[in-house]
UniProtKB/TrEMBL annotation, chain A:
The chain crosses the membrane at residues 29-50, 62-81, 93-113. The keyword Cell membrane does not apply. Pfam families: MadL. Keywords: Membrane, Transmembrane, Transmembrane helix. GO terms for cellular component: membrane. This is Malonate transporter subunit MadL. It comes from the Bacteria.
TrEMBL record, chain B:
This is Malonate transporter subunit MadM. NCBIfam families: malonate_madM. It comes from Amaricoccus solimangrovi. GO terms for molecular function: sodium:malonate symporter activity. InterPro entries: Mal/Na_symporter_MadM (IPR004691), Mal/Na_symporter_MadM_N (IPR018402). It comes from the Bacteria. Residues 5-251 form the Malonate/sodium symporter MadM subunit N-terminal domain. Keywords: Membrane, Transmembrane, Transmembrane helix. The chain crosses the membrane at residues 12-31, 43-63, 69-95, 107-129, 163-185, 197-217, 229-252.
Length: 139, 253
């Protein structure tokens, strides 16, 4: 049943956010620490376990696949409710701080990507990453 | 006419689905027709979303972009934190866990590097604009991390509301820039595999920026970037008012 997939996904997110809040409280910060990350790991382990036990039928998986495919439209809706006006009117100090930080961090990406990597190997190719669900083609 | 808008307001989420669907269709058409697919449709759609947010913010003076217009309140639900996180977690379905383990170390390094570099650059810019006290420098640096770390750190340190507003703006600029810019720099920073995506998420940290930027680059990378980005805000809130504040006070105070 398709609701099984949706239910597993919801339960994973709830559990992850709960752990993230707990961790935030524990170390005394007013923020959720890694809730979504824990939820993702939980989902990976649970679905892997169910698939290996052949207890996770195709239709149940679609309950997760649907929400995965809804990701980009949801991000577009997210973009449409950002406080863009405040970002633009933040004045030169805010704009420079934001732009410079983003630029420096981007420049560091290839440097840090080498940390802990297998030395002198070709970078992993796209085919290494198993797509969760085939990304939507423009159709 | 009023009957129609009443209907659309009452069924806000459904209107949001159809409105976003129509926007996406238009943007994918523009991508194919005018850029030959070189600029991906999702990148154009995210840009359109930001433009609409600007229109909404200008019209209403609110802080939630298009969602502040009653007719588009459903956009607020569709793109709100709950459904956003729901969809992000769903993208993890089927990712390769061994990839995450292999890139684990660089992911952790990228988190710390991202937080420290953001604070340092933000604090330097603040200093350059005349905010030379350690509290203001740390708060604006925190904002350069993310627009959540900014107010959390500023409140903890007792910064002025003007400085806190500035820190939020800095974080918003970064987030919007990451959303728009990622597809354009992806090739030159090698952002085409799981490891780099995890490092990218850890360095940039802004969940909405990383989520939007990677979605516009290659949706398969989203779960890896989101995985590390989700720890960033917590780490920033932890280090900002403590270790980093002490460091900045020792240097500038």
């Amino acid at each position: 049943m398709i609701i099984y997939g949706v239910a597993i996904l919801s339960a994973c997110l709830l559990a992850g956010v709960f752990v993230g809040d707990l961790l935030g409280n524990l170390i005394g910060v007013q923020a959720n620490v890694g809730g979504v990350g824990f939820a993702m790991l939980l989902l990976i382990f649970i679905t892997d376990y169910l698939r290996r036990r052949k207890a996770f039928c195709e239709i149940s998986q679609m309950g997760i696949g649907f929400w995965s495919a809804m990701y980009i439209p949801i991000v577009v809706a997210m973009a449409a409710q950002q406080n863009v006006v405040a970002a633009v009117s933040g004045g030169p100090a805010a704009i420079l701080a934001g732009v410079l930080t983003a630029a420096v961090c981007v420049a560091l990406v290839p440097v840090i990507a080498r940390v802990g990597g297998r030395s002198a190997t070709a970078p992993e190719t796209r085919s290494d990453t198993a797509p969760a669900i085939a990304p939507e083609k423009a159709c | 006419m009023t009957d129609l808008s009443e209907l659309l307001i009452k069924n806000g989420l459904l209107f949001a689905f159809s409105f976003v669907g129509l926007t996406m269709w238009l943007c994918y058409w523009v991508s194919k027709r005018f850029t030959n697919g070189r600029i991906h449709g999702s990148a154009i759609a995210i840009l359109a979303g930001l433009a609409l947010a600007w229109v909404g913010g200008t019209l209403t003076g609110g802080s939630k972009g298009l969602a502040d217009i009653p007719l588009f309140a459903g956009i607020g639900l569709m793109g709100g934190a709950m459904l956003r996180d729901f969809a992000i977690v769903a993208t993890a379905f089927g990712v390769d866990f061994s990839e995450i383990r292999r890139a684990g170390l660089s992911g952790v390094v990228s988190l710390f590097a991202g937080v420290f570099v953001s604070f340092a650059v933000g604090a330097l810019v603040a200093y350059g604009f005349g905010y030379t006290d350690p509290v203001s420098m740390t708060t604006i640096g925190a904002g350069a991390a993310t627009y959540i770390v900014g107010p959390v750190t500023g409140t903890a340190l007792g910064a002025s509301s003007e400085v806190i507003a500035l820190s939020v703006a800095a974080g918003l600029v970064k987030s919007v820039l990451v959303m728009i810019g990622t597809p354009f720099v992806a090739r030159s920073i090698g952002l085409d595999n799981a490891r780099t995506a995890m490092v990218f998420g850890g360095l940039m940290g802004t969940t909405s920026g990383v989520a939007g930027g990677l979605a516009a680059t290659d949706p398969r990378l989203v779960p890896y970037g989101a995985m590390t980005a989700t720890f960033y805000t917590g780490l920033g809130c932890l280090l900002g008012p403590s270790l980093i504040f002490f460091a900045i006070r020792a240097i500038a105070g």
